[in-house]
Specification:
Blueprint lengths: L2 H9 L7 H8 L4 E2 H6 L4 H8 L9 E2 L24 H4 L19 E8 L12 H14 L3 E6 L4 E8 L5 H20 L11 E5 L4 H9 L1 H4 L5 H11 L12
Parallel strand pairs: 1-2
Antiparallel strand pairs: 3-5, 3-6, 4-5
Helix pairs in contact: 6-7
């Protein structure tokens, strides 16, 4: 090992790692310097512990130090309403050094989501609706997703979303509702505005997209005949989902 590499090995930080993990790495024929450093062993002690000090000892390879989570120096709200600190929670996985991200990995994860205002209050008036839906579309883009279609009758929202495989529906809707609600409070001075706690989320096949688009675009006409409560229960039954109506509207 070169002198500068040995110095980096001896002087680097020592996070907690067991000798068993070092032995596991050595079984692959390579001893990783950051892992060796982790148990606080000197290079010579590790060679003596893991081999006979001769040709059978695994080679030591210098890799970059392990990634350390970024220090939070104060949370900031992202542009277009992404939640505070979301950069630390929703991010693309990084490939280990020496490995490549799997080629030819594709996803088309389409979800029809529906949620109402708290208490089904008619907050979504024609003057608020266009700006609110546009802002919500910006939040979804910040999450690396896409809003294919959205509609907002007076007391609830429908969206057809395409979400990345690395993001759960629950997390996407938590960010979407929290930040759009905050935007309404700050820009429209509606302190009573809030979304319901729950939501409905239904997977959509590509072949069924035209029907879902027609359904979302026809909400105004649809709700001349049926209430939001009746609509949601119909969707739950259609998708074979059980529910307890005592808690359905929270």
């Amino acid at each position: 090992m070169a002198a500068d590499e040995k110095a980096a090995f001896e002087e680097g930080p020592k996070p907690r790692t067991s000798i068993a993990e070092v032995r596991a790495y050595s079984g692959m024929g390579v001893l990783l310097v950051p892992t060796a450093r982790a148990v606080g062993y000197s290079l010579s002690a590790l060679r003596a512990s893991l081999g006979d000090g001769g040709s059978g000892t695994p080679p030591v390879v210098q890799l970059r130090p392990p990634l350390v989570p970024a220090r939070r120096s104060g949370r900031q709200r992202l542009a277009h309403g992404a939640s505070r600190g979301i950069g630390n929670r929703v991010r693309m996985s990084q490939a280990l050094e020496g490995r490549q991200i799997m080629a030819h990995s594709f996803s088309n994860l389409l979800t029809h989501v529906i949620f109402s205002t708290r208490g089904r209050q008619p907050f979504l008036t024609p003057d608020l609706r266009p700006d609110l839906l546009a802002y919500m579309g910006g939040i979804v883009r910040k999450l690396r997703g896409k809003t294919i279609e959205s509609s907002a009758p007076l007391d609830h929202v429908h969206c057809l979303l395409s979400l990345p495989a690395t993001l759960s529906v629950a997390e996407a809707l938590r960010v979407l509702k929290a930040n759009s609600s905050l935007w309404v409070h700050e820009t429209r001075r509606l302190p009573a505005f809030a979304w319901q706690t729950g939501y409905g989320a239904f997977s959509v096949s590509q072949s069924n997209v035209p029907a879902v688009l027609k359904y979302i675009r026809g909400q105004d006409q649809h709700h001349r005949r049926i209430s939001f409560q009746e609509e949601l229960i119909t969707l739950l039954k259609r998708h074979g989902l059980s529910y307890d109506e005592r808690y359905l509207w929270e």
